[in-house]
């Protein structure tokens, strides 16, 4: 639970920093898309990381859990791309670049927290 909470907290901090930067340099409409992307990326990443933590002690399931998380990320990006290009609710370019960027940065955090709470070998 400590690893998940630490990951969720740091990922949230990074999302907020990204939102603040986008709000300072982008148009209000683009910043709105980046806010949506940051929130969605955080939810997807925290859920996928939680599942990975759940299966980390089972070597036969770990790779499957990791692959499922990668698949989930691809599906989310694809669905959001389809949705924003059809509805124009958010500007497509900043929303999709923000989503992929936030997912990537949060994905890089996972190894820092994956070992936390495991017994030392």
Fraction of residues in helix = over 70%
List the secondary-structure elements in sequence, H or E. Answer: HHHH
Q: What is the end-to-end distance?
A: 20 Å
Number of domains: 1
Number of helices: 4
What can you tell me about this protein's structure?
The protein is 86% helix and 0% strand. The protein has one domain. The longest helix is centred in the middle third of the chain and has 29 residues, at 59-87. By secondary structure, the protein is an all-alpha fold. It is built from four helices and no strands. It has helices at 2-25, 28-55, 59-87, 92-114.
Features:
0% strand; mainly alpha; flat; single chain; 121 residues
How would you summarize the topology of this molecule?
Elements: H1 2-25, H2 28-55, H3 59-87, H4 92-114
Helix pairs in contact: 1-2, 1-4, 2-3, 2-4, 3-4
Short description:
By secondary structure, the chain is an all-alpha fold.
């Amino acid at each position: 639970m400590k690893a998940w909470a630490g990951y969720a907290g740091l990922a949230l901090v990074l999302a907020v920093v990204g939102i603040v930067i986008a709000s300072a340099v982008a148009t209000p409409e683009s910043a709105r898309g980046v806010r949506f992307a940051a929130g969605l990326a955080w939810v997807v990443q925290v859920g996928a990381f939680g599942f990975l933590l759940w299966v980390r002690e089972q070597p036969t399931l770990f790779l499957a859990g990791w692959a499922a998380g990668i698949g989930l990320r691809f599906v989310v990006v694809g669905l959001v791309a389809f949705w924003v290009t059809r509805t124009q609710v958010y500007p497509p370019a900043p929303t999709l670049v923000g989503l992929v960027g936030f997912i990537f940065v949060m994905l890089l955090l996972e190894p820092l927290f994956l070992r936390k709470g495991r017994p030392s070998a």
